[in-house]
Amino acid sequence: MSDIPSPEFSGLEGGEEQASEDVLQEVVNWYNTQIVKERRAPVPDEERIEELKAGRQAVLADQAQLATADPEEAERIAAVYAARLKELNES
Questions:
Q1: For the whole model, what pTM was predicted?
Q2: Rounded distance, CA 43 to CA 24, Å?
Q3: Other Cβ atoms within 10 Å of 62 Cβ, number
Q4: What percent of the chain has pLDDT over 90?
Q5: Rounded Cα distance, 54 and 15, in Å
Q6: Minimal CB count within 10 Å: which of 1, 26, 38, 40?
């Protein structure tokens, strides 16, 4: 087994991209959780559900944009959503 070289990953890029995707996924998860909670409420607020769904859809659109974003744009998107996630978690 010691004759098999271990893979070298230090030169690979993508750590920042993955972090950006992770932040956006956390925001999507927040929206999903809120939508489920609202739907399970004794009297669901349909207007709030629609607002949550629209918010989630906006995140999904930005998440799709990450695939073609340059590193600076990906960083900007991640920063915006990191701030939004903090704000959502505090509300």
A1: 0.78
A2: 29
A3: 17
A4: 64
A5: 29
A6: 1
Q: What is the pLDDT of residues 9-47, one digit of tens each?
A: 334 345 566 888 999 999 999 999 999 999 999 999 999
Q: Which residue, 86, 25, 30, 26, is CA-closest to 53?
A: 30
List, as own/partner pairs, every contact residues 19-23 make where C-beta atoms lie below 8 angstroms and the sequence separation is at least 24, other chains included: 19/78, 20/66, 20/74, 20/75, 20/77, 20/78, 21/63, 21/66, 23/78, 23/81, 23/82, 23/85
pLDDT at 4: 53
Q: Write the DSSP assignment of 54-87 as a string of letters.
A: HHHHHHHHHHHHGGG--HHHHHHHHHHHHHHHHH
Cβ contact 38:60 at 8 Å: no
Q: How many CA atoms lie within 13 A of 35 on its CB side?
A: 15
